[in-house]
Amino acid sequence: MLSRYGGEEFAIITPETAAESAQAVADKLRRIVESWHFPGVVRPVTVSAGVAEFPIQGNTRDELVKSADEALYAAKQSGRNRVVAAQSLRRAF
After folding, report:
1. Contacts of 49 (CB under 8 A, 6+ apart)
2. Given 8, 9, 16, 20, which residue is catalytic?
3. Residue 8 catalytic?
4. Which residues is 51 bridged to in the sheet?
């Protein structure tokens, strides 16, 4: 399922998909967009993505989105046009 999350951000939900497979899907999408010629757009279009897996990176919707968002910003900070997997949640007991 694909939806616009806000501004230039989109969410892709891949039920029953392990993080590694979701990361491969995101990277394939990234490569397709990078090589696509968008008429009237003079600069290259790229994709930065963050991938998070339920329940490893979040037990709730908000935790999962936060994990994916943190991974997205890590992708942007490390040079853009890449896919970064979220880290596992660290819980204090």
Report:
1. 26, 27, 29, 30, 71, 72, 75, 82, 83, 84
2. 8
3. yes
4. 85
pLDDT (tens digit per residue) in 21-57: 999 999 999 999 999 999 999 999 999 999 999 999 9
d(CA 52, CA 75): 13
Whole-model pTM: value is 0.88
What structural domains does the chain harbor?
Answer: 2-85 (3.30.70.270)
Cα 56 from Cα 58, distance rounded (Å): 6
Token look-up 């490390």 returns 78
* 3-state SS class at 4: strand
